[in-house]
Amino acid sequence: MSIIVDGLKYLAYILIFPGFLFCFLSGLLLCGIDRKLVARMQKRVGPPILQPFYDFFKLLGKETIVPVTANKTVFLIAPLVGLAAQVVLQLFIPVFSFNAFHGVADVIVILYLLLIPALSVIMGAAASGSPYSGVGLSREMVTILAVELPLVLVLLSVAKVVGNAIGTGLCFSLTDIVNYQLSHGSLITKLSMIPAAIAMLLIIPGETGGHPFDAAEAETEICEGMLAEYSGKPLAAYKLSHAVKLLTMTTLFVALFLGGIGGGIEQALMTSAIGGAFCFLIEIVILFLLCTVLVALCCSFVHAVTARLRIEQLFKYYWTVVTGLAVISLVMAWFGL
Amino acid sequence: MFDKLITESMGKSPWLFHINAGSCNGCDIELVAVLTPRYDAERLGYKLAGSPRQADIVVVTGPVTKQSLPRVLRAISQVPEPRCIVTMGSCPQSGNVFRGSYSVCGPLSKYVHVDVDVAGCTPKPEAVIEGLATATKILMEKRQKGGQK
């Protein structure tokens, strides 16, 4: 009996809350808010906030073209693999004190899962056999290399700070990181974590292919790069997984640096005696608002004021400035600041 | 299941692909004017797609020269159904001042079905937006009629 209940619970997790439905709705909504904000910053009226939903459903209704030179199986499966990995990733990131899959995955698994969507785009692009995709995928690989190093260093410094406090040396468990913040306040209030948080903010547009770092899918010079040959449903899957990536990266930021806010909310709601389900709903709304603020800060604003970087400029920027910030944070964490 | 939703979305998110078939660049600049802050066609969902495979509406400018004709036809054939073809300016419609030149093969309607003609040299942005809106309606009708192939 309990197996069935557990099974249903996990099914609900996968399909509804941190899973597909939540990812679909809030990811696309986040994407729409981003587009609207960029438009307003450029003194335009901008598309309606629901525009990504229209785009998604329109793409579902278009013809799917598979190029003659393409490897059909890989070409069509790659977008689905990417989308699935992206949703699985979202399942493992805790929402304040709520964690759908307790203690199954830690920071290192998240690091691996973050790579799969990018790799799936590369696989699909390579299978399409288009020269534009070829240029795009080589640039995407450089972008991954550039972003991965500072990301690992940021995660390492977070692990060190929490590990120091708990007394385990290095703490890679996301649940422990969030629980520590729930009782001790957000990590961003620590001096040693401020450079890491800034580095993470700069990593988010790089990881999601945001504006100054979108050399891999430069629509005006290499015809959308890796997506050049995609149309119809596979393209819709890519657009969706890109939107979910925006959500995932920002929720990861909230879990790593702003987890303490959850403690505050819970205390405030506890005293006002509201039911558990309602309290949980408020937490989700607050999480979404935090994600929106982060997207506005590190994607929309940066998009509105910058032009595209060349790929070698991007690489240099990540391996000097962003990595430098992460290293400063790591050294400070090692000295226990 | 989502049939109605898809048809409705079709009218709200038309992506453009722009082909220059030997144009003098006047219409090309005017098309950009439609998309930039002053007229901001993105508020209606229009977006410039980088690849013909992602487009819904093909905008052709220029009198269709001998050199560009095979390339124009090839690019148009790569646009997935349902699609709409809009000619912009008088050139692809009639040849304009280039009519009768040895290197001009136009009008475009000799080779493909053209859904909307926006005349003018160059057409005003308002006229372009109206033409695109008509094309969007045709796009929705095509979707309703033929569905997806």
Write up this protein.
Chain A has 337 residues and is mainly α. Chain A is built from 13 helices and no strands. The model of chain A has no long low-confidence stretch (mean pLDDT 83). Chain B has one domain: Rossmann fold (3-Layer(aba) Sandwich), CATH 3.40.50. In chain B, 37% of the residues lie in helices and 14% in strands. Chain B has helices at 3-12, 26-35, 69-77, 91-94, 125-146; strands spanning 15-20, 47-48, 57-61, 84-88, 116-118. The chains are: A mainly alpha (337), B alpha/beta (149). The interface between A and B is medium-sized, with 36 and 29 residues.
- Specify the CATH class of chain B: Alpha Beta
The proportion of strand residues of chain A reads under 5%
Overall geometry of chain B comes to globular
Residue windows where pLDDT falls under 50 for at least 5 positions of chain B: none
In whole angstroms, how far apart are the ends of chain B? Answer: 17 Å
Mean pLDDT of chain A: 83
How far the N terminus sits from the C terminus of chain A, by CA atoms, comes to: 50 Å
Number of domains of chain B: 1
Query: Given the structure, what is the number of helices of chain A?
Result: 13
Q: Which CATH architecture of chain B?
A: 3-Layer(aba) Sandwich
- The helix fraction of chain B, in percent, is 25-40%
**What are the low-pLDDT stretches of chain A, counting only 5+ consecutive residues below 50?**
none
